[in-house]
Each structure stands twice: as C-alpha cells, then as structure tokens.
Specification:
The complex is a heterodimer of chains A (650) and B (348). Chain A is built from 21 helices and four strands. Chain A is an all-alpha fold and 650 residues long. Chain A has a domain of 352 residues: Cytochrome c oxidase-like, subunit I domain (Cytochrome C Oxidase, Chain A). Chain A has a two-stranded antiparallel ribbon with strand order 1-2. In chain A, α13 runs antiparallel to α15. Chain A starts with a helix and ends with a helix. Chain B has a domain of 90 residues: Cupredoxins -  blue copper proteins (Immunoglobulin-like, Sandwich). The N and C termini of chain B lie far apart (73 Å). The chains are: A mainly alpha (650), B alpha+beta (348). The interface between A and B is large, with 107 and 106 residues.
Amino acid sequence: MTPDRALREMSDRAGGRDGPRAGQLAVAALRRTWSDPPGFMGMLEAIDHKTIARRFIIATLVFFLLGGLLALLMRVQLARPQAHLVGPEAYNQLFTMHGSTMMFLFAVPVMQAVAAYLVPLMVGARSIAFPRLNAFAYWIFVMGGAFLYLSFALGAGPNVGWFAYVPLSSSDYAPGKGADIWAQMITFTELASLLQAIVLITTILKMRAPGMRLDQMPLFVWATLVTQFMVLFAMPAVMIGSSSLILDRLVGTHFFNPARGGDVLLWQHLFWFFGHPEVYLIFIPPLGFISSIVSTFSRRPIFGYRAMVLALIATAFLAFSLWVHHMFATNLPEIGKSFFTAASLAIAVPSAVQIFCWIATLWNGRLDLKSPLYFVLAFFVILVLGGLTGVMLGSVPLDLQVHDTYFVVAHLHYVLLGGGVFPLFGAFYFWFPKLSGRMLSEAAGKLHFWLFFVGFNLTFFPMHLLGLHGMQRRIWTYPAGLGWDGMNLAATVGAFLIALSALVFILNVVFSLRHGAVARANPWGAGTLEWSMPSPPPPHNFDAIPVVHGADPLWSPPGQPAFVGGLATQAREVLATTAFEARPDSRPLFPSPTAWPFWSAVATTVLFVGSVFSPWAVVWASLPLAVALICWFWPKPRETSRSVALEQRP
Amino acid sequence: MPLPGLHAPTVWAHRVTWALLAACASDAAAGQGALDPAGVQAARIHSLWQLTVWVCIAVFTLVLLALMMALVRATRRARRESSEPARGERHEPGATRVVLIASLLSGAALAGLVALDVLTDRALSRLPVNDALHIEMVGAQWWWRTRYANDPDGPGFEVSSDLHVPVGRPVVVTLKSVDVIHSFWVPQLHGKKDMLPGRTTTIQFRADRAGSFRGECAEFCGLQHALMVFNITADPPERYAQWQALQASPASPPAQPDALRGQALFLARNCAQCHAVRGTPAGGTLGPDLTHVASRPTIAAGTVANRPDLLAAWIVQPQSLKAGATMPPSALEPEEVRLLVSYLETLK
C-alpha cells in the first residue's frame, strides 16, 4: 500500500468533505458535527460561539437592568432635598455598584459579547477562534458578576466608588470586605475581557473567508479589531492597580500609602490609563453598529470606508494620551496640562470625520426608516452633545469648575448612552432577527425609542445645569434653597420614563420571541455575510465557506469562485487564512465541546474569592485549578487519530 | 412634509424640552455657582465658558441641520427610485469635498479652542500675590481645619468652616489632607483643587465683590462627603479687619454663673481633650478650635445652623445630625448640656 493511498483511506475514515455541491448529507453531517451536546451537562459543555455569546449578551443585559434599578433608587433619593429614603452608607453602595456594574459588567463586556456572536458570521467562519477559551471567559465573567451581586445582597457591597480612589479604598478608611470584593471583581472581569480580546483578534486576523482582505472587512469587524487591541493595552493597567490595591489591603504592602513612601496619585494614573481608553472600548464598537445600520437603511455602501478605518485607529491611539484630563484638579505641571488638553480636543476630530461620513452616506442614500435607524439617529443628537461637553471637559479652566459635579454626570451619560447604549439598542433591533429567527415589533420599537429618548434627555440634560450651579457628584443628599430642587425632580421623572422604556423593550422581546413575524435570511436587505445564512444560523454557520470579492459581499456583483469546499464534515475542521490578504493558509482542527472550561472557571473563582479572605488561597486553590486545566488540555487518543487522519501532504 | 412618523413625537419632545428649559431657568434665578462669578478667576473661566458654549451651539446646530437635510433628501429619493442597493454605485464626488472641508474646519475650530484654553489657564495661574492673605486649610473626614497665618495686621488663628476674606486682596490657600483625598471648591471664586494626603497643593483666588460664597468638598471622601461644606464671606477690608482682630484674640472669660459652671464642665469632661479654647487650659487638637464658636453661623462643617438647641443636640449625639461624625456622644445630664451650651454661647 503506497503512503498516498493510506492517507486517502485515513481521510475517508474521517468522513466526507463540504463544498457548494456537497449536498444535503454533508450539510446534515456539518450540523451534527458542530452542534453542542444536549441536556444539562451539554449546557456546561457548550462551546458554540453563538450559544456562548447569546448567554453572554443576556447576562450583560441582566446586569444592565440591575444597574438601572440601582440608579432608579438613587434618583428617588435625590428627587427631593434632604430626603432620607436611603442613608449615606446605602447611597454610597448604590452609586458604587451602579458605576461598577455599568462599566465592568455591562458596557465593555456587552460589546465583546455581541462581537463574539457576530464576528465569525461576518467574516465567514464556522467558529470563533479558541472556542473553549471563549466559553471559559464567559463563565469567569458570569461568576465574577455573581460574586459582586451576592456580596452586595449580603450587605458587603463596596462603597468606595467605581473608581476606588486610594486612600479612601485602603484598609484604614474602608474596613470590611467591600473594597476587596470590588478589586477581585475587577480581576474577574478583566481576565474575561483579556481572553475575549485574544479570541476576537485571532478570529479576525486568521479566520476570515478567503478573499476578505483587511480593507474589505465590515466596519464593525474593524471596530472590534481596534477595540480588542485597546483592551490588550488598557486592561493590564487596571489589573496592576487593583492587584496592588488588594496587596496593600491584605498583605500590607504600601504602594499607595503616602506615610510609607507610597503615592495616592499613582492609583489615579493607573486607573485612568485604563479608565479613559475604557470609554472608547464602549464607544468604538457602536461606531461599527452605526456603520452597518446606516449603510443598510440608506441602501448604500458606507461613504469613505478608508477614512472611517483610519478614524477608528486614530481614536484608539489618541484614547491612550488623555487620561490625565481626569486629574486636572490635582497638582500638575502646566506643560503637561496643555498636552492633555490638546490631546483631549484632538480626539474629537476622528469622531467628527466619522459623523460627516455617515451624514454623507445618508445624503447619497435612499432612506428606509426602521426602528434600528431611530436609535442611530438619536446617536447623532446625544453623542454630538456629549462630545461637545467633552470638549469643555478637556479644557483645564472649564474642567476645574465642572470636574466632579453633575455636569460630568450629564456628560458621561450623554457619551456612554448616546455613544453606547442607543446604538446598542439599534444593533439589538437590527440583529435580533438573525439571533432569534423572529422580527421585533416595529411599533413597540418606536414607542421604546421615544420613551427612552425623551426620558434620557429629561434625566440628564438638567444635570449639566446642576453641575454649573455647584451640585457636586456622589452626594447622598443636598440642602433645599440652592436652586437644585426642580432640576433634580425633573431628572427623577426622566429616570422613570427610561425605566418604562426598558419595560416596553423587555415586553417587545418576550412577545416577539413567541409571536413575532418569522425572519428571512436577510430581512433588511443588508450587504454583509451574516445575512447570507438562514435566521437563526445553523450550528456550523455556513454550509460552504464563501469567497469574498468586495466590501459588501451580498451587494457586490457575484464573483467566481463563490465558495470553497473540502473541509471535513465529520470533524471540526476550519479554514485559516492569512492575516492581510485572507489567502487560504491551513486547516486546523478545532476542539470538541467539554465541561472543563466551566470547571476551570469554578476553580479560578474559588481562587479569586478565597484570596479576598486569605492570601494563602492563591497557593492552595491553584491545585484544583491546575487539575482542571490539565484535564482541559489532556490530548484524547480519538481526537489525535482523527487529526492525524485529516492531515494532508502538501 | 417628508419623514412621516417623526412628526408628532418630535413636537411632543419639543414641548417637553421647552417646559424643561423654563423650569431650569426659574431655578437658575437662584444664582449660585460657576455662572455667577464673584472673583477674577471665576470670571475668566466664565467668559471662556460663554465663548465655548456659543461655539458648541453653532457646531451642534450645523451637524443637526446637515443630518436633517440628508434625511429629507434620502427620503425623497427613496420615493422616486428603487430601494435596491445599487451594485458598485459610487458616491457623488462633491460629497468628498464637503466632508473634507467640514473635517478641516472642525480641526481648526478645535485648535482655536485649545489655544484659548491654554491662554486662560496661564492667566489663571498669574494672579499677583505679593500682599496675599495666607491661609492653610486641612481637610479631614468630614470637616475643615482652617489656619490663618501670621499677618502684618495681627497674629494667626484657627477657625473651621466659616472663613472670611477681604474683598480685593489675593488669597493663597495651602491645601492639605490628614486622611483621604478631599477637594476645595468655591465655584463663585475659582475652580477646584484637590487636597492630597502626602502632598501639599495651593490655590489662589481673589474675591472682587462682597458676599457669602458656598464652598464644598468636590472629591468623594467617604460616608458624609455630602455634608462637607464651608462658606467664604468676602468682607470690605475694614469689616474683615474687625473679624480678624476678633478671631485672633483669646476667648474672654465668662461672666454669668451658668456659663462659668459650663466652662468648668468643658474643662473637666472630655471636651477639652479634643477642642481648644484659646485663653483657657483647653488645648485639644483633634477637633475644631472653639475659641469663637459662637461667632460662626454653622457647625458640623457648614451643614447645621449654629443654634443653641442644635448645638445641644450635637453635643448629646452628633450622629443624630450627621451620621458617621467622629465626635463621640456624651453621657451628660440635660442640665449639664444646658450649662455647656450657655458657656459655648459666650464664645463670641
């Protein structure tokens, strides 16, 4: 028997091959191969990126609602001067939990979760890269969030602010476990975030469909790529910060203790070196949503694709050079302040370029005004206003007046809701049919939009004036007679309108999941690959891997070849391509479902939670973690032989 | 009109916005904060603010106008033409030029704002301070210790949350903290400056008209961050001199028998361990100097009116007025409290 023949026999044993003409049997085999196992254990073993991302999105939305409820409680307390519905301790916990939830458990992870769902579909891949790592990151995130809320429910919630400035968060001024729990929650979410970044970057650079050059990727994929590189650089700063904090608190180091040579401003530098780029981790992915939605509903490719990509990259670079504008009120040298003012204002330019490009796209387009576009149009009103107040905050003299006042509260909500949450809801209405196979109700969507838009402005617009009138942030009560009462009441009324809009949204989702119109593959007539497969997508995403010939593959003239074939249908074989040109490169075999990522996450949780109570937990809890990780990576003979069988000589 | 469906809710939103602005305008009449400057620096910042606001309003209007025009145009076009995405259709070349010009203009406007910001910031730090009044303010959870330095006109002294400064004379405040980060902010006089443990910062300002200006801690500093307030009264120079002379003098011994018995209690009980009254053996330094406590309009870091009944309540149980206050409750008989208050009331 010649070696060639032996190899062919082995590969036949591994099953058939996919391709545009492979037939129904091959598709059924693909579906079987890529499905997650059934049952309860199957839930723990799931590694399909769509399953994981769906759970991830739901988890972040649950945290969003919880954070919103906390905000509602704060607004009730602040509706009237000198109210005593909640005391100072409870209020401080409320705003700490609200900020931490929204930043660490909602806004940053939800963008990664949506990307984990969409990116493989948009780039024409059967799976996300490192599917088990992806599942592990999800479990870590959920356990970290649950840990924080469990502590809060048990009365040990953190009360030092989502920024946990030292020395207020040191063991001298924050006894108890609140600040430790906050710091470990950071460790959980940052770990999850870093792993997700690796998974997404690898997917984007190595798993694009053949022919999808870098300059033909959908802008959302570009936005995700840029964001995930930012995560790699921003997150380590806060992990160093929170680890040093917890060492100060538990082991008695003195990183931040001025009495022993530490420095209180060091924390602020570390925190904001992460914290300001973090705003852009929340803001850049929605720029991708907006490009998808604007392009689809104006029936035109996006105007100025290259300018858009360069603007995203410029934003990412500049985002790392303006953290000090959070610290203008500390003692800083003048030349430093000027630099950070210039950088803070310069970052408005790439955002302006993108806004002009979207307006130009609409200008040339044929408008199809559907609910996703409503939320995007709100972006133009709200984000532009938030950006302009951001220009004010970048100015040292103006910042010295409005820093740490309700003006900043207004600004950050205009930026984060206008730049993050409104486009996110637009994206939800846009991609919900793809996720669920059902359309959301348009009428309910518009009602949701108007309640949210009016409620939002009623809540946050008066806060600009409150800040200018001297109302400082993070106060649990305020005296009457300072001219703050009416505006605070307006803000509280607005908050209830927002809550009502959220209720409309939830009802819309629940109702539409059961009774919504059945969604076709491409209900909006969009141009990118995720709309080429049925809604919801099959487990293997694509029956045959498409070959891409343009930026909007479903809109551009069909090119030849349209598909590639030859991947195994009985094994999780995927096509890896080159980073720039997306030429076919290799056919790695992806791992099968397993519960070990879940058990590894449990072991990691034991380690992180244990270390809040004893530093020795880092030592003894590493044993179960090591066992779980060894089991995760232990090669199984069946998989090895299959992998050998699939190997082909060049 | 184009855009059906946008119309009715827009009108409604407009009404809400106008009602909102009206409510805010009536509130604004209360006149406080950064929009009502009383010092040269706050005034500089205020003029920069006004200029920036107009630039921003212009930009905002232009962007929304462009967006509305684009929407109207795209709606009309959608009526006339097929909504099929045209394959390989190119955008109009004119649009490129407009986008380019708009981007360059934004860059230029921002560069102009940067220049103004930097110039204003430089001007703020160039207040001439030759004959300045020097004050040291120490932040603590949750009150202020204020030391007036020796001055050509008289010796130094210590007060708490009610400060006086002379109109027209620059003031240099040295800022410190004994525990966590606090921030000094009197919006009508200047922006804020942090009080950092382990570092010393300074802020300079000048009050240009007489009046009473609210100050507050602007950096979250724990449980009672909300109740850490102070007050700066700018007096004409003669009135300031009187106030200064009074504050620098030691306490005059009480005359009435009740007050005398109160003083004995003050010295015998725990009060004097934390509080000083100059001119008596009481020399505690943990709490505020009480030498002229009766001359102050407030207690508890500017948050409680200095009335005999509230002062008594504060002595019995500080937590009842300000949860978390570090002053311990006292186990005094009601009669003893009355005597103590009558003594404190003599400390004018």
